[in-house]
Amino acid sequence: MQDVASSIDRYQVVRRIGAGGMGVVYEADDLERGQKVALKTISNPDVEKIYQLKREFRALADLSHPNLVVLHELYLEGDAPFFTMELVHGEDLLSHLRAGDVVVGKSTVPVGVASQLAVLSDCTVNVTVCVA
User: Fold this and answer.
1) If 0-12 CB within 10 Å is exposed, 13-18 middle and 19+ buried, where does residue 41 land?
2) pLDDT band, very low/low/confident/very high, at 105 (cuts 50, 70, 90)
3) pLDDT value at position 103?
4) 27-57: per-residue pLDDT in tens?
5) pLDDT more than 90, % of the chain
6) Fewer CB near the terminus (10 Å): N or C of the chain?
7) How far apart are CA 49 and CA 54, in angstroms?
8) What is the pTM of this model?
9) 80 neighbors 45 (Cβ within 8 angstroms)
10) Distance from the first to the final alpha carbon of the chain
């Protein structure tokens, strides 16, 4: 991925932040914006994975909420599609959940209850959490 991001003069990959089932997220310098961003890639892209990446980006691109990262650009050219988003510093979600309790609204609830609330809310969009 570093080669692909380097081929787009706008981004300079700084480091790998993490990886998941779909791909890898990098910290990168956005030379045009003059700020650091998270750059989300997909591993072994195929038609289905590219569709998922586009769907995730489009579902979240127009949303604005303090608890969601801001999405910037979607790149589908070449053989390594990716999108860029706000880079957030802090604890990653898995570490936070392993700590035991989750804040929901103004209340702290056990992780098990929080996961049940998420199921009840019938969430149908995958939310990307990128923490550096």
Assistant:
1) buried
2) low
3) 57
4) 999 999 899 999 999 988 889 999 989 998 9
5) 28
6) C
7) 9
8) 0.67
9) yes
10) 18
- The answer to whether the CB of 11 falls within 8 A of the CB of 4 is no
φ/ψ of residue 14, rounded to 5:
-95, -50
Domains with residue ranges and CATH for the chain: 2-89 (3.30.200.20)
**Dist. CA 117–CA 55, nearest whole Å:** 24
68-84 burial string, b = 16+ CB within 10 Å, else e?
A: ebebbbbbeeeebbbbb
Q: What is the pLDDT of residues 7-27, one digit of tens each?
A: 567 899 999 998 888 889 999
Q: What is the model's pLDDT at position 37?
A: 95
Q: How is the chain classified by DSSP, letter by letter? A: -HHHHHHSTTEEEEEEEEE-SS-EEEEEEETTTTEEEEEEE-SS--HHHHHHHHHHHHHHHT---TTSPPEEEEE-STTS-EEEEE-B-S--HHHHHHTSEEEETTEEEEHHHHHHHHHHTT--SPPP--B-
Q: Which amino acid is at 38?
A: A
Instruction: Name residue 18's beta-bridge partners.
Output: 25
